[in-house]
Amino acid sequence: MTDLDECDTAGAVEVDGRQQQFPTTQDVSAARGLPPHLSGPIDYAYRIGIVVFLSTLAINDRSREFRRDHANIHDMHRTVMSAFPNITESTPARQAHAVLWRLDSTNDGYVQYVQSRTEPDWGHLPAGHLTAPAEVRPLRPVLDVVEPGRKLAFRIVANPTWCEAKSRKRLVHREPERQVEWLIRKGRQHGFVIPDAGPGPDVEPSPIPTLVGRKNAATKITVEAVRFEGHLVVTDREAFREAVVGGIGRAKAYGCGLISVEPAVA
User: What CATH number is attached to the domain comprising 30?
Assistant: First the structure.
């Protein structure tokens, strides 16, 4: 078994049973004309002072538009992107604005978190889409407390995939043990470890309904995702900051990859 990142460097989700490729961070950096040593999103953001924003949206789950979006993950992606300016260059808008998002279900309904390099304008959302004004704040206070050895509580919805070496086909980990192993491997890549808690790693994977949608009548999208919650310990400050800003794993356009962290409660 080979992790997808080791055999395919471009992003991918399943579209009509086929892998659809999306630009990598390096592709986007090249399109922006960034020098190689500034290829990472957090490195670039810190060096030239770009602010990263985190929006919290209280969703009205009775909204007709939200019910439409909830049934079609591509419509939800388009609704999120309506808050950002159109891009005329070849770089896709989501990558250009460094947009990540996640939809959480709470006792009070749905909350959507949207992270971006560009400050969003949520006034473009349909009337009645939110139950309260959007909250937008800079992410830098979160990034500033990230230091090696710091223990943080985290939550992420991710698309845990692997690549079959012989066929090069991308598959999804469905067993909880394999899903946790996938996240541990990602930690080695992104500057964190999952500490032990009792008999195993301090993380709980839980399945969520398969994310489905259509770009058009002929193009179906399917994303199998898992919600991970637990604790991590930072081992590499810059690598972890880049993971927070750039996201982890695949299907970032469709609600995967955004990791939320806060100080662990003693």
Answer: 3.30.70.1210
